[in-house]
Amino acid sequence: MFDESSIHAANETVQGDLARDYDALGEKLAREGIDIETIRKRATDFAVAVPSWGTGTGGTRFARFPGGGEPATIFDRLDDCAVINDLTRATPTVSLHIPWDKADPADLLAKAEETGLGFDCMNSNTFSDTGGDHSYKYGSLSHTDAATRAQAIAHNLECIEIGAKLGSKALTVWIGDGSNFPGQTHMGRQFERYLGSMKEIYKGLPEDWRIFSEHKIYEPAFYSTVVQDWGTSLLTAQELGEKAFCLVDLGHHAPNVNIEMIVSRLIHAGKLGGFHFNDSKYGDDDLDSGTIEPYRLFLVWNELVDAEATPGLNLAHMIDQSHNVTDPIESLMVSAMEIQRAYVQASLVDRAALAGYQADNDALMASATLRRAFRTDVEPILARARLDAGGAIDPIRAYRAAGYRAQVTARRPKVAGGGGGIV
Amino acid sequence: MFDESSIHAANETVQGDLARDYDALGEKLAREGIDIETIRKRATDFAVAVPSWGTGTGGTRFARFPGGGEPATIFDRLDDCAVINDLTRATPTVSLHIPWDKADPADLLAKAEETGLGFDCMNSNTFSDTGGDHSYKYGSLSHTDAATRAQAIAHNLECIEIGAKLGSKALTVWIGDGSNFPGQTHMGRQFERYLGSMKEIYKGLPEDWRIFSEHKIYEPAFYSTVVQDWGTSLLTAQELGEKAFCLVDLGHHAPNVNIEMIVSRLIHAGKLGGFHFNDSKYGDDDLDSGTIEPYRLFLVWNELVDAEATPGLNLAHMIDQSHNVTDPIESLMVSAMEIQRAYVQASLVDRAALAGYQADNDALMASATLRRAFRTDVEPILARARLDAGGAIDPIRAYRAAGYRAQVTARRPKVAGGGGGIV
Amino acid sequence: MFDESSIHAANETVQGDLARDYDALGEKLAREGIDIETIRKRATDFAVAVPSWGTGTGGTRFARFPGGGEPATIFDRLDDCAVINDLTRATPTVSLHIPWDKADPADLLAKAEETGLGFDCMNSNTFSDTGGDHSYKYGSLSHTDAATRAQAIAHNLECIEIGAKLGSKALTVWIGDGSNFPGQTHMGRQFERYLGSMKEIYKGLPEDWRIFSEHKIYEPAFYSTVVQDWGTSLLTAQELGEKAFCLVDLGHHAPNVNIEMIVSRLIHAGKLGGFHFNDSKYGDDDLDSGTIEPYRLFLVWNELVDAEATPGLNLAHMIDQSHNVTDPIESLMVSAMEIQRAYVQASLVDRAALAGYQADNDALMASATLRRAFRTDVEPILARARLDAGGAIDPIRAYRAAGYRAQVTARRPKVAGGGGGIV
Amino acid sequence: MFDESSIHAANETVQGDLARDYDALGEKLAREGIDIETIRKRATDFAVAVPSWGTGTGGTRFARFPGGGEPATIFDRLDDCAVINDLTRATPTVSLHIPWDKADPADLLAKAEETGLGFDCMNSNTFSDTGGDHSYKYGSLSHTDAATRAQAIAHNLECIEIGAKLGSKALTVWIGDGSNFPGQTHMGRQFERYLGSMKEIYKGLPEDWRIFSEHKIYEPAFYSTVVQDWGTSLLTAQELGEKAFCLVDLGHHAPNVNIEMIVSRLIHAGKLGGFHFNDSKYGDDDLDSGTIEPYRLFLVWNELVDAEATPGLNLAHMIDQSHNVTDPIESLMVSAMEIQRAYVQASLVDRAALAGYQADNDALMASATLRRAFRTDVEPILARARLDAGGAIDPIRAYRAAGYRAQVTARRPKVAGGGGGIV
Fold first, then answer.
1. Above 0.95 for ipTM, yes or no?
2. I want to staple A68 with a disulfide (CB 3.0 to 4.6 A). Which of A409, B66, C254, D381 is the partner?
3. Does the keyword DNA repair apply (chains A, B, C, D) (predicted)?
4. Cα torsion for A21, A27, A31, A37, to the nearest 10°?
5. CA dihedral defined by B242, B244, B249, B255, rounded to 10 degrees?
6. Does the bond joining D220 to the residue before it have cis omega, within 30 degrees of 0?
7. Residue C358 forms contact with A (CB below 8 Å)
8. Contact predicate D75/D103, CB 8 Å
């Protein structure tokens, strides 16, 4: 756990300014009929899961350039996740990736206890070969070979088994299956094989679990991908049953696609299950949330906040990013806060006024109503929520001041960099 | 009807060459185990509908530059459509657009009799104001105002009523409803209003009719569109019932999207209803079929030919293009033949060999199997099919030789050009 | 001119709140070492030109839906432009489009005097036929026919002549020339003809004038466009000479393109001449500035503010939008303010700190430095700048309260709507 | 070298059919006024370089799945390249990548002599860390740190030095430098540093060498890339001098971009230097040439064939692909033949007729003229050119029959698969 006194020390110097800014914002919001305390309560209650593997430096097919203190084990990763939550108070759970995070469940639970963390959705991996008898070079759950499919199914069932011991309640399935050439696969039969495998996994779900189907337009397959878009993901969830839902990763769409509309459609269909947050400019860039198109992130949250009262809506939120040029802990902290920021801004939208403008087709004022919420600088609310929960007003400053990265760099084994997947 | 003797005259000069090319191709295909006569039979049986409005010169929001002999009425348009079918023998039906093509059904049937044409799907228009009490500026079937929705519903029901008298069996619904600003509409409620209106129209479908929902990512709405992709179109068809299907327009997708995969998915879902053929490079460019990415057109047909035996599959094929810089009759003839070409090429695919390569994950040979079919120059088969049916070996040459455009230019009133929608 | 007393009345009710917000912001900025008065001065000095034609309701190729009080003449348009500037105090000049705005220069100057407006860049129109002997159906400045090119050149020279009388100092040339089919034009020779025509126009530039080349990836041409990107625009400006520059329209790029980088490159090349501001999600959507991706607008301004001290940099800023579903006056006011907002936010960037982070490859803090400026709610600064200059704290509220639209609707002739360019 | 007798054996069975198809095609082309022997001569003279590294199985950031017989050294790679050329007779040269292919030049020359291969352009690598003192994590030729830039410059100079000993005449520079966050780098100064480094490398070019600047829109950098498009590449080549040219990789552009137009513009500017051939559907997919959009490949060649007579035009052609799911030797053979196919098809275009249609703005016939050439099945010409040069009529069949892959799998050490760059 991050040293409490260092957090206090870091907070002390800026606490007065925060109070002033908070009051000024409160006064301004009050004039608009918004109670800042209500909003602060929402900020406090907000949580997004951190992916264990996100604590390591990511890379591309060209290269990976590790930093100092790369976590070597899931226990290192949980230590790093604890830092993120200690400082931001917004990331109380961790999402595991099997087999990367495989360990004795008892040890994992003990570490969770020690770090104050819980476990979010489980993630399976059939997009690389990690030691099974059958290779996933030509697919996994949709492979033409039944034995390969069986291996992939068994792996997913094992993920559920592990997760059940850890208190997780969901399995997220993303596969890279697809093709690189027109004709390489029969797209219809490949999808049927995928559905067949998913049904086997579905059968293994505990009563109170859910399964998430995650779509992605391309990569690692470059001509076709089995679950390429939300339409296919929806078909999948429909065919599987009531415990099956769709998971939306913000970076997995074709250029120009209106993602917030997909969110709205999946809510309509009763099949929205959760999110993988990140940002992107070109493809599945896995950039830090809110750093490229913050307004798009806000618009997604606008849909979610609007739909809060929808019966049965139960969303799993996770960050899913690749941190290639930053300290992953820092990126995860900033990203958690940017996601939280968009959520809080979306909470400021005057929905009664908006509904009125929409009814009147007053496009200009409807649009202005969203922008007014978006441009409100809610940093004082976020900072105050952190402060009150024992976190840092400025997590990056506190983190750097405490020298955590230097400590783990000294302690953990050095990792070699090198080429990526390309050669 | 196009003068038969002029067709004969045009054919005579090239008939000998055609025979030679046809024989050489037949010999080559025989070596590959393909009977050219079987393929020719398929070419002969092929048909694609022509849109009545496609016979007029199209334009953009910047301008429209009409040509000579623009058709002024649906009867002119049917005359032009007859020329297209007389020469290509591939376009026996015409798709009408209401209110543009509104006329006494008896007169339309008489004209159809005279020109040897039939009527394909009906198309409604609620994307421009054509005289109703309520404006579609802010939407039609999904408008916030119930009276406006009722007007749009009534218009669609009228289209069915007219079509029923003409022997049409389907209504295609494409609406431009959407928004230009985030916040302008509540995307979820807008979709619900759309579904409500569609259900009213669905109730008015005769027993043997179908309704097609057509998706489009954007334009004329530039932030969101109600039926923006095949996922929403699928949800619509699912909620409406068994007479509702999805129609795919090749130019209505986000950049990079794999359209043939959408075709495959809709076949899986039992909801593929038909196509609007055209080609595009950027947006909904409505360019001539097969002129930009002919291999993509082939890959779409590859899915369709592969799925021919699917129980219940019944597809409506129509050309939907905007001819801005060519003689529309010429573009429609060439487009019909390019669509037919891709269909015939797809019919050459060695599906047994392909299935074997797919089972073996022999991506290289699977891909080569498709390309081998695609690169076969099937022009002799197409030309022979036309010739045998009374059409022209080279429709463009025959059309130009006959001077049809000059005749209608002399006969029909001159149309003024001018600005487009922008100002 | 907009009634001063109504502006005063509207301001009075919110002036107290503004003072409070302004002071709170000033205090906060002071802590960051920023003098709010300096920033306010920048806001006050900011100006962006309004396009005369933007005051009318725009449309698409499918339809145009006019509103009430559409301006019928350039004098009506100048009245509307005066309202925009009276209320926002950010749009002192108007950009004319010939032949749409053709009138006796003396009358135009008198009207400018009356409304307190000046004239910005001139815009020529060779993308639609407006009465010349030669049609632009197949191109204008790059047409294969010398007489058509000569007509287009003469039109541009006339635009310069008119502009010179009005005090304008630049001509913006955007042409729709291109092709809809591979092979339709020889792309190399077409470009050479374009350059030849531009050189003729260049010769006609007065000593103190500049010419701007504006690129656009597609539309109205859908396969190729002569000046399709900044590379071709740069080649053009290089070949023409030192009075030739490139103009960047934010909506004229391929999907995913990094526009702020193009800005940076054109500054490097010494060839950036100006901007057409708008926003877009798909193509050249011409949506209101800052309504889709406000952070992108900020990043463009970040480059411009960074480069302010570049010797010789002299930028022409204009709004170029199509207002299809809003009151154009309202959209232009909001857009002018959003552009101003991004400019002011970019002025808050701590450039010394940023340079330090960049030197250290501290990507996280560099990125945070930009976001910190962006998320500052500078509305009090903008409002105060307007107030001090005689404008409205809340221009939309003041405009609506004054009933201007109702007045012109009563006064001006009703305009019929109808189809767009498509049919 | 590939066993001649096995080539003969494979050819023997299909030689008769080839003769028949060749004659039929010759007769058909003669009718169109084309001499098949002239075209065959062009096919025979065609050559495209093979990248040494392309002989190994590629991968993505998610995983790499090696096949059997992966080449372990440059000498293995040259053996594989020899097979490709022996069978296709279209790839007489190999392009080396330093440091991957570093070896004693004398040994390389001896191996080249033995395999009958020559050396094409040299390629430097500063997108991954390969042992230098300074890391390229934050850039190479454009790094903020002078020592890192110096290391990258020295590496490029070493590539020239090695290449000079091998008979190479050009250096291709592609760097991954850019940024992942807005603000991470000052885009203008970063470009200036890049230009400064390139000027140092340029100074080291031997008299008869050229340097190629290769642009790419994104990856591995995901927000900005220093040489992001042909505009920046052109600026670079212009500032460096007359030995500097631009290299176009077909997969390195934004969605929808018209690549053949870029080719045309670079020819106009006198700065087109060469190509990296591949195909793509989404990003830099590095798929096999001609497998996704064969018509696009044809259109590029159409520009090149059209420009053949341009004084000073001297193009370097190389394949640059990532073979993730096929035998790389097979993919390189097929790709070389597909590139050759497009070149030969483009050689069939009736340029006099085309120029006439273009002059008349007969878009339909101009477009048809290109398609007529494209749809000609030139396989007999390609096969005959191979046969006459000692290659295989059907290289894939001959290669598989000879069992080369099994031989090298038995002989070469097994390579472990595993994760890509992501973790």
1. yes
2. A409
3. no
4. 90
5. -80
6. yes
7. no
8. yes
Inspect the interface and report whether the beta carbons of B192 and A268 lie closer than 8 Å: yes
- From chain D residues 310-349, the ones with a CB under 8 A of any chain A CB are 322, 324-325
Shortest Cα–Cα distance, C397 to chain D (Å) = 35
3-class secondary-structure state, position B110 = helix
Decide if C240 contacts C141 (C-beta within 8 A): no
Q: At what angle do helices A328-347 and A379-388 cross, to 10 degrees?
A: 110
Q: What percent of chain B has pLDDT over 90?
A: 96
Give the separation between CA C323 and CA C56, rounded to whole angstroms: 8
Q: Which residue has the tokens 């978006």?
A: A374
Residue type, A300: V
Asked if D289 has any chain B CB less than 8 Å from its own CB, the reply is no
pLDDT tens, chain D, 423 aa long: 678 898 999 999 999 999 999 999 999 999 999 999 999 999 999 999 999 999 999 999 999 999 999 999 999 999 999 999 999 999 999 999 999 999 999 999 999 999 999 999 999 999 999 889 999 999 999 999 999 999 999 999 999 999 999 999 999 999 999 999 999 999 999 999 999 999 999 999 999 999 999 999 999 999 999 999 999 999 999 999 999 999 999 999 999 999 999 999 999 999 999 999 999 999 999 999 999 999 999 999 999 999 999 999 999 999 999 999 999 999 999 999 999 999 999 999 999 999 999 999 999 999 999 999 999 999 999 999 999 999 999 999 999 999 999 999 999 999 877 655 554
Q: Taking CA B364 as the corner, what is the angle to CA B363 and CA B366, rounded to the nearest 5 degrees?
A: 65
Q: Cis bond leading into A294, ω under 30°? A: no
Angstroms from A244 CA to nearest CA on chain C = 32
Give the separation between CA D141 and CA D152, rounded to whole angstroms: 6
- Residue C341 φ/ψ, nearest 5 degrees: -60, -45
Assign B167 to helix, strand or coil. coil
Q: How far is B419 from C7, CA to CA, in rounded Å?
A: 38
For C115-129, the pLDDT digits (tens) are 999 999 999 999 999
Which residue, chain included where needed, has tokens 């076709």? A224
Q: What is the DSSP letter of D59?
A: B
Question: Which H/E stretch holds residue B235?
Answer: helix B230-240
CA–CA gap between residue A341 and residue A336 (Å, rounded): 9
CA closest to C324 among chain A residues: A363
Question: Residues, chain D, total?
Answer: 423
Q: Rounded to a whole number, what is the distance in Å from the CA of A216 to chain B's nearest CA?
A: 11
Q: Which two tokens stand for residue D200?
A: 């140092």
Show contacts of A385-390: CB within 8 Å, 24+ apart. Answer: A385/A40, A385/A43, A385/A44, A385/A46, A385/A89, A386/A87, A386/A88, A386/A89, A386/A90, A387/A11, A387/A15, A387/A18, A388/A40, A388/A44, A389/A44, A389/A89, A390/A4, A390/A7, A390/A86, A390/A89
Tokens read off for B75: 């009867």
pTM: 0.98
Selecting from D137, D176, D181 the residue whose C-beta is nearest the C-beta of A291 gives: D181
Pairing of strands A93-97, A118-123: parallel
- Interacting residues of A359 by C-beta distance below 8 A, sequence separation 6+: B144
Cβ under 8 Å to C: D residues 217-236? 217-218, 223-224, 228-232, 234-235
**Beta-carbon-side half-sphere exposure of residue A242 (alpha carbons within 13 Å):** 3
Inter-chain contacts counted by CB atoms under 8 A, chains A and C: 78
d(CA A54, CA A43): 23
Which token pair is C387? 């107030």
Residue in D with minimal Cα distance to B333: D364
